[in-house]
Amino acid sequence: MQGAVCVYPRPMLRREGIARERIDEAEVIGAITHRVSSRLAHGELDILLNETVFMEEKRLRNSTDSGEKAYLAMLRDVRRQLARASRRELEQLLRRIVEHYAHEIHGHFDESTYSSATRMLPKGLALLLKRQKPWELLQQGMKGLTLSDRIVSSGEITTFDRLVERGTVVLVPTHLSNMDSPVIGFALHANNLPPMIYGAGINLFSNWLLSYFMDHLGAYRVDRAKKHGLYKECLKEYSQYCIERRWHSLFFPGGTRSRSGRIEAKLKKGLMGTGLAAYQQNLAQGRELPRVFFVPCTINYRLVLEAETLIEDHLADEGKARYIITDDEFSRPDKVLGFVRKMAAMDSSVEVRFGRPLDPFGNFVDANGDSLDPHGRPFDPAGYVTRDGAVVLDEQRDRVYTERLAEQISAAFFRNTVLFATNVFCAAIQRRLERARPGLDEYRRLLLGPEDRTFSTLEVDAELDHLLTALRALRDAGEVQLSRPLAVGTAKDLRHAAIHQLGMVHSTPPIRDAGDGTVVLEDPKLALYYANRLVGFDLPEPLPSRGPSEES
Q: How far apart are CA 235 and CA 226, in angstroms?
């Protein structure tokens, strides 16, 4: 199945993970509340609760949202009781807040909603992608509509398929767009992989219709605005609990969408560490199929709808950059609709690539679920965390293991990234700009006038050839993936394709063919976003300047 595309649709829901059992909502809420409260009960509860109330009051003091006002009233009631609370009363206040967070976080997977969504949503998206009219769709009787020619899956699909029955799989994808969740959901369903629970920003639940589907398709809420320790503990406990129950999980280890367009190199390790914690708890409890597997995954786009807003936010002063963007292009349905329709003109607009699975310690895993040593020999990783058959807890040791896992996932992101003409052409332009003005930093180069951002097509094509030679060598070494046009196309063909594609979606095309043997870098910020996908690869220096027009 390596590199293959499975045919959609599959008639039956695969009863793995969260679809395996009926979920008792009260049991889940109670378990999370008990586990967090019990673990924190012996700490300095007054300090922990004070921090929680203080940070949330500060964040929400000007909120007009009715739900947030009720939550704030609850916190203020907790604050009033803190000064005179006994130890037992502090524990009760802790449980009160934790239970609130458990209710807020927990998703409500529903088999019938999932089955309906996986029948209807791909058909609706395929209709948009193929730009067919409703009556034409009815005439076809819903036949022949598939997203498999627009969302292509490749990589270690067969191994992934076998591992979901040998333990718990945690899927860790790159994160570029708000389209990532539906795209990865389709890829899983199209390859007959089971549904997964996944963390979604709580701001995405503001639309009642979207909220209903997300809430019942396995999404759990992540409020990134809550930065205090108690909330993070609840979130990690929920993730660990789900993995222990063999609910296959998905989370984006980069946190939010990549603002710069770069491949995520520094990953958040909080949720990642819950896989190791769950594995140790599974061993300690003697659970059947205790193993936990991490599957790195890249979601690769020719074009990204929110690129303009994301790169603007990345380039903003650090103190002004927004952690949560609520008003980007994805917030406008007309923009999303137009984007999806325009993607119809491009074959394989999105490529989802599944990398080699890893265990919680960063070792590769084979299709039998066995960890592999550096020589490819299978071994039992339980020895990492046990002594004389008993699990030994060691937080410092576990942090080292999780750090190694994060490094391996980041390396897998680079190996499994698929580059497109839009990325490489923009990188070639940026490299010519860098060579023409070597004394300027990135930010000052963005302020240059049009006369300094105009290059001959011969110059750009030479840089493209220079890059293609290096990238094809990296591909042959297994260090990157290239879309088919990049693998076989000429520089001239790629230049024409990239300019055409970049002009299809963005209001101001980042690069324009002037028609006189030159190309003009119209929007250097947007071009930088697409070029940044190449940052981190071992690439040669730009070609040297060859004329007075390139002198600074």
A: 11
Q: What is the mean pLDDT of residues 246-257?
A: 92
Got the DSSP string for 13-38?
----GGGGS---HHHHHHHHHHHHHH
Checking if the pLDDT of 303 tops 80, the result is yes
**How many distinct structural domains can be found in the chain?**
3
Alpha carbon distance 296, 156 (integer Å): 10
Question: Is residue 37 scored above 70 in pLDDT?
Answer: yes
CA torsion 384→264→483→129, rounded to 10°? 110
* Cα atoms in the Cβ-side hemisphere of radius 13 Å centred on 125: 21
Nearest to 240, CA basis, from 257, 220, 256, 215: 220
Task: Describe the crossing of helices 66-82 and 87-105 by its angle, rounded to 10 degrees.
Answer: 160
Q: For 234-257, what is the mean pLDDT? A: 94
- Three-class SS of 303-339: CCCCHHHHHHHHHCCCCCCCCCCCCCHHHCHHHHHHH
Domain end call among 414, 431, 457: 414
Query: How does 432-452 read in b/e, with b if 16+ C-beta sit within 10 Å?
Result: bbebbbeebeeeebbeeeeeb
- Residue 476: count other Cβ atoms within 10 Å of its Cβ: 9
Same-domain pairing of 81 and 138: no
